Amino acid sequence: MTRAQSSLLAVRDVSVSFGGITALNGISFDMREGQILGLIGPNGAGKTTLFNCLSRLYQPSAGDILLEGKSILTRRPHRIAEVGIGRTFQNVALFPTLSVFDNVRIGAHVRSKGDIISDALRLPWVRRARGGA
Predict the structure, then answer these.
(1) Does 18 share its domain with 72?
(2) Number of domains, the chain
(3) Distances (CA, A) of 128 to 93, 119, 131, 132, 133
(4) What's the CA gap between 20 and 15, in Å, rounded?
């Protein structure tokens, strides 16, 4: 199987229980590079629970989630964006004093090469990397 045909993301038998309530029971699917996958279902079907597992906010009770063949379940939640997994939340939490562009750029902060001193001084290379802001 070539890289384009192999799974970029593989969810394997993921289950999540909250006390006596099972939110997910043996969910499995594959996403390949370039594929768009939709997730639909009624309220209470477990869609948000699955996204919370993918973004590491929840730890599955069983199963595994693989990104490029490696489990993400050992990654701490604050380190998940480094591998390219991100999510939005149902509630909109924008910074009201920032532009739409700057609100979107906030999500790219984990990929920036800046540091607190360079950012505070707004050094020329920092401004160039951020599109002249």
Answers:
(1) yes
(2) 2
(3) 27, 12, 5, 5, 8
(4) 13
Q: Are 20 and 74 part of one and the same domain?
A: yes
71 and 120, same domain (yes or no): no
Which pairing describes strands 62-67 and 7-18: parallel, antiparallel, or unpaired? antiparallel
Q: Which two tokens stand for residue 57?
A: 């906010």
pTM above 0.90?
no
In a shared domain, residues 19 and 74: yes
Give the integer Cα–Cα distance in Å for 18 and 103.
Answer: 34
For 56, counting Cβ atoms within 10 Å of its Cβ (0-12 exposed, 13-18 middle, 19+ buried), the class is: buried
Q: In whole angstroms, give the CA distance from residue 103 to residue 19.
A: 37
pLDDT in tens, 12-55: 999 999 988 999 999 999 999 889 889 999 999 999 999 999 99
Q: What does the block give as tokens for 4?
A: 């384009």
Structure tokens at 19: 């006390």
92 or 50: which leads in pLDDT: 50
Clarify whether residues 13 and 76 are in a common domain. yes
Considering the domain architecture, whether residues 75 and 19 belong to the same structural domain is answered as: yes
Residue 65, number of CB atoms within 10 A of its CB = 21
